[in-house]
Amino acid sequence: MSSQLPAGDVARLAEIFDLYADTVSDGAKCMSPAAFARATSPPVLDTSAFFAVADTEARGVLTKDDFIRFQTLLRDADAAAKLSFSAAEPETATLRALVSADPAASSYLKDRPKISYAEFAQLIDASRAARIRHAFVAADPQGSGTIHIDQLLAIARQFVPLEPTSPISQRLALLSESPDSQRIGYPTFLALISLLSDPSRIRQSAPTASLSPLETVVLNTLASGERGAESATPESISSIIDTCYSALQPVPQAEHKPKPRSGLMEVMFQAYNFAIGAVAGGIGAAVVYPIDLVKTRMQNQRAAVVGEMLYKNSIDCFRKVIRNEGILGLYRGLGPQLVGVAPEKAIKLTVNDFVRSRITNKQTGEIAVAGEMLAGAMAGASQVVFTNPLEIVKIRLQIQGEMLKEAVGSTKAISRSGAITIIKELGLVGLYKGASACLLRDVPFSAIYFTCYSHLKKDVFREGERQLGMLDLLLAGAIAGMPAAYLTTPADVIKTRLQVVAKQGETVYTGLTDAARKIYKEEGFKAFFKGGPARIFRSSPQFGATLMCYELFHRMVPFPGESHELPQERAAHQSRELSSQTALFHAGNALRLLHDSGYKFGAVVPPAK
């Protein structure tokens, strides 16, 4: 039966099944009755009746085909009758109870152990009409043929989904015989119940084509908000249809608002985020450090210097480092990098999350692109306090190898220095040399990166509809790093030139503007993008690995007492919306037939007394 649905709908239903499947049978994912109830709606009355209908093989679990077949059934125009008949078919007594309001139907079933579905559907229609008549008569003890507006709403809710605060309920008084009477005649009552029982009959292209004349009057009055209206706009008619269907949506659950953390718990929570960021950042930095070293040496290579150029390109640089300094030469300066990356990544991720949470719309959960870029920019600016000292020490360690090679055969003795020695030589002020260029690089980088990362997860990998896996997170982080890294390469080149020690014969730069002007004058515009490809190859996988580890570690090791909602849970509401509103409407009608009460998904509406 799944072939009757569009391929896109089948794929969506398959995703819903995968989200909620909680057991395995014969090597395949399956749904238990409890999982079936969670996947189809919030808790409902007697969901076992529907499960038995879906479980056509009586296995006690549902396969993916069973689930899709059941969802397909819900889209049939006569789904309510089919569901009711399938659920009650083994019990003749239940069938009799469903049509008990019609004496003739009860007499027909009395001595028959089984009837066909066609007979059942016809009897159900007649029995429902009988119950509607009896409800009206009970509300009109004087026999006036009219009932009060308040009684109309109570009776209508027994047979159709209708919220007391909905636009339809608010406009019921317009259906009264006169503005002062507040009473509804029996014909109008029947037209209203008939109209709201099957909103699918109302078509925007020809909304009144399948309606009776009185149903048309009722529709135009409710849609336009004017007594006795002869017409209504397509938009207002559409709102009436939406109102009918929205009454079947799950009852909103009270949002869980975590209690404010105490001062101590807040400190511990920030320490937890720092630890997660440190581990994730360390992994990302170690993975791509050899590429970073090559990038730095390429950027520091001048076009107009004394002697020959050491490296022809990034690959040549990579080969010569291994030949001259060994494999370990590719990791020179990694120690300070790992020490510094902990607070750097932690503060960047923390500030970005903090600012995003403050400027996100609390009602819709949406955040503007400008807000996303602002959060990223502030995160980039905050990290410079850690990044600049780290970068200047790392860069000087990275270029030591080539300085030692150039010193071979010269009279000047150069010894290899460690990180502590370099820090002592620079001093506190020296550690922040080139900080302006660092800001110029890190602020736009983070603004671009975090915005791209968020939209890639949401728009490309469909976060929220499904749980993102390791590859999804890695690709989202890596792809987002590409434009962010390349577009900020000029600032990275300037920063590198300011932070290295100029060798004999090389140009000395006094500041940000001076460096930019001299680089352009001596080496041309292309010099600003030196090491650009290497920067992409370094930043892209590094941030991909960092963000992947950061999110996975938060899932695997949640902060004690902190609620981390998984994508499956966030997708629960969305997955219900994927099941069409028509399917929910038909299922609601079936439950009314089975339980003979005013019922809507997520809550029981008490029958009128």
How does the SSE layout of this entry go?
Elements: H1 7-20, E1 23-25, E2 28-30, H2 33-40, H3 47-54, H4 64-74, H5 79-88, H6 92-98, H7 103-110, H8 117-139, E3 146-148, H9 149-159, H10 167-170, E4 183-185, H11 186-197, H12 213-224, H13 234-246, H14 263-300, H15 314-325, H16 334-359, H17 369-398, H18 400-407, H19 419-430, H20 435-460, H21 470-487, H22 489-499, H23 512-523, H24 532-556, H25 567-578, H26 581-595, E5 599-600, E6 603-604
Helix pairs in contact: 1-2, 1-4, 1-25, 3-5, 4-26, 5-26, 6-7, 8-9, 11-12, 12-13, 14-15, 14-16, 14-24, 16-17, 17-19, 17-20, 20-21, 20-22, 21-24, 22-23
Characteristics of this structure?
elongated; two-stranded antiparallel ribbon; single chain; mainly alpha; disordered C terminus; 609 residues; 6 strands
What class, by secondary structure content?
mainly alpha
* Major β-sheet profile: 2 strands, antiparallel
State the assembly state of the protein chains. Answer: single chain
Give the tally of β-strands.
6
The strands making up the biggest β-sheet line up spatially as 1-2
Q: Pick out the low-confidence regions.
A: 42-46, 248-256, 566-582, 595-609
Termini gap: 42 Å
- SS element count, helices: 26
What is the C-alpha radius of gyration, as a whole number of Å?
35 Å
Based on CA inertia axes, which overall geometry fits?
Answer: elongated
Mean pLDDT: 75
Percent of residues in helices: 55-70%
Q: What fraction of the residues are assigned to beta strands by DSSP?
A: under 5%
